[in-house]
Write a structure and sequence with these properties.
The complex is a heterodimer of chains A (130) and B (222). Chain A is globular, with a radius of gyration of 15 Å. Chain A has one domain. The two termini of chain A are 30 Å apart. The N terminus of chain A is likely disordered. In chain A, a hairpin with a 2-residue loop joins β4 and β5. Chain A is built from 2 helices and 8 strands, in the order αβαβββββββ. Chain B is α/β, with parallel strands linked by helices and 222 residues long. Chain B has one domain: Glutaredoxin (3-Layer(aba) Sandwich). Helix content of chain B is 32%, strand content 23%. Chain B has 6 helices and 11 strands. In chain B, α3 crosses α6. The longest helix of chain B is centred in the middle third of the chain and has 16 residues. The N terminus of chain B is likely disordered. Classes of the chains: A mainly beta (130), B alpha/beta (222). The interface between A and B is large, with 52 and 55 residues. β6 of chain A pairs antiparallel with β2 of chain B, so a sheet runs across the interface.
Chain lengths: 130, 222
């Protein structure tokens, strides 16, 4: 059956890991400290979920997070999300717990298409190009 | 109203991410992708999955295993091994089967090293996933897969929270199948009970294999 093959867009659209995407971002995220490297590595894209984001959302206050609706990245680039809030947040395909830092290097070309409930456009597309 | 998976998927697109993993194929001569090797050479993360810092610990959390002789299977790999974990339900129309099939392909890619990686599937729908149903479901994809379920909603919530997993089951007015939503990531747990890596839904199996090989190298260093 089709569903047992490498997922197509329609098949994977049901990923619920990314429900209720909530994110905050800024340009001053801290450097990620690798556990096996002495040098600090600066991510290509830094986002910060601010303290109080969850409460603000609970109160119905939309967050203009600044995350571009059409987020273009390249293979080899790295995204980092620092969650300064006191609760975990789902941000697109990622979950970042309270006081955690998430870091991922894009390894394969592809496309993340999703809706961010806090983004003014309501939608975020992450395109990873070769 | 009758529950129709395809209908359910469309509105869910409003809150769902789509990942197209374009690299479904790769060299079979090396388990580590060229990309991962390149990252490693640059000092960046060699992994395809994403890392959380500090690594969340889940080793103290346990659930009953439906197909094992234990009521307390801890989310912790055996010594020098790894444990993959995902949450879902056997009635899932496509996400869970895709996840489990990708896991099987990824583990097959490990060849003999697959014996050093266990896989646990946690049901977020224990009402329909009784022990037999869940065990049969998991083992249909992964012969040695561990089927975890509990009738205690609090225990399930504790386990899900530990991983950062979201799930909802909503009854449909007028009967019919409930609408279910859940995190579909695969988590990698080491022998200290830490989540060392997470693969978003849709990560290519070959990339998961690459990550597993790298982590096995790491945990099996003597």
């Amino acid at each position: 059956m089709t569903r047992f093959h490498r997922p197509t867009v329609r098949e994977i659209v049901a990923s619920a890991t990314i429900l209720l995407a909530v994110a905050g971002c800024s340009n001053d995220g801290g450097a990620f400290e690798q556990t096996d490297a002495s040098a600090e590595v600066i991510a290509d894209y830094d986002f910060v979920i601010p303290l109080g984001a969850g409460i603000a959302l609970d109160d119905g206050t939309p967050l203009d997070i600044g995350l571009p609706a059409d987020f273009q990245v390249a293979v080899g680039e790295t995204i980092q999300i620092v969650n300064e809030d006191d609760r975990g947040h789902n941000v697109g395909p990622w979950f970042v717990g309270a006081d955690e830092t998430m870091r991922q290097t894009f390894a394969s070309p592809g496309e993340f298409v999703g809706i961010c409930t806090v983004h003014p456009s309501g939608e975020i597309t992450v395109t990873v190009s070769a | 109203m009758t529950y129709r998976p395809q209908t359910w998927l469309r509105p869910l697109a409003v809150v769902v991410l789509v990942l197209i993993a374009a690299s479904a194929c790769g060299s079979s001569s090396s388990p580590q992708s060229a990309t991962a090797a390149a990252f490693e050479a640059q000092g960046d993360s060699p992994f395809v999955g994403y890392e959380r810092d500090p690594e969340p610990t889940v080793g103290s959390v346990a659930l009953p295993a439906a197909n094992r002789d234990t009521d307390s299977f801890a989310f912790k790999a055996e010594a020098d091994k790894l444990l993959m974990v995902s949450f879902g339900y056997s009635s899932c129309p496509d996400v869970c089967p895709t996840t489990l099939l990708d896991a099987r392909v990824a583990l097959n890619g490990l060849e003999a090293r697959a014996a050093d990686v266990d896989y646990a599937f946690v049901s977020i729908d224990p009402t329909r996933d009784n022990a037999e149903v869940l065990s049969n479901y998991v083992e249909a994809f992964l012969e040695d897969g561990i089927a975890l379920r509990t009738d205690d909603p609090d225990a399930l919530a504790v386990a899900a929270d530990a991983f950062g997993v979201f799930y909802t089951i909503e009854e449909v007015e007028g009967g019919g199948e409930p609408e279910v939503a859940h995190t579909a990531s695969i988590f990698l747990v080491d022998d200290t009970g830490s989540i060392v890596l997470t693969w978003p839904f849709g990560t290519a199996a070959v990339d998961i294999t690459s990550d597993l090989n790298l982590f096995l190298d790491r945990v099996q260093q003597t």
